[in-house]
Design a protein that fits this description.
The chain is elongated, with a radius of gyration of 18 Å. It is mainly alpha-helical.
C-alpha cells in the first residue's frame, strides 16, 4: 500500500502535494526537506515582528504590507511621511528600502511619494 505524502503549509495549514514548492492556496514557500535551495517567494517571507497600522491591522510579510498600503492608503501615506516605514525597513535590515522610504517621504505630493515607494 502506497501512502501519499503531503506537505502542510506553515501559513495556512492546508495540505499540498509532496512535490509542491509553493502552497497552492496562498503561494507561501513550502519547506520540504528535499529543497535546501531554489526559488524563494521573498514577499511571502514572514517578518520577525509585524508592522502594525494605527487601526490595528498587522502585516507579517511584504505581500501583506503592500496590500495593506493599497487598502489603507491614507494611513500608509501618513506612516510614510512620519518615518514609520523607514524605521521599520531599517529594523528589518533592509537599508535599501529604508532609504527608498526616506526619499519617498520627501516628495511634495505625499500620494506620489507612497506610489513611488
Amino acid at each position: 500500500m502506497d501512502v501519499a505524502m503531503v506537505q502542510t503549509c506553515s501559513k495556512c495549514s492546508r495540505a499540498n502535494p509532496a512535490e509542491a514548492v509553493y502552497c497552492y492556496f496562498d503561494g507561501f514557500v513550502l519547506g520540504g526537506p528535499s529543497r535546501p535551495g531554489g526559488p524563494v517567494a521573498v514577499g511571502a517571507q514572514v517578518f520577525a515582528h509585524p508592522f502594525v497600522f494605527p487601526g490595528g491591522r498587522q502585516c507579517r510579510s511584504f505581500d501583506e504590507l503592500a496590500i495593506a498600503c493599497q487598502e489603507e492608503w491614507a494611513a500608509a501615506r501618513d506612516l510614510l511621511r512620519q518615518g514609520y516605514l523607514e524605521n521599520f525597513f531599517g529594523g528589518l535590515g533592509r537599508v535599501d528600502l529604508a532609504l527608498a522610504a526616506k526619499e519617498a517621504a520627501k516628495f511634495p505630493d505625499a500620494d506620489l511619494g507612497l506610489h513611488q515607494l
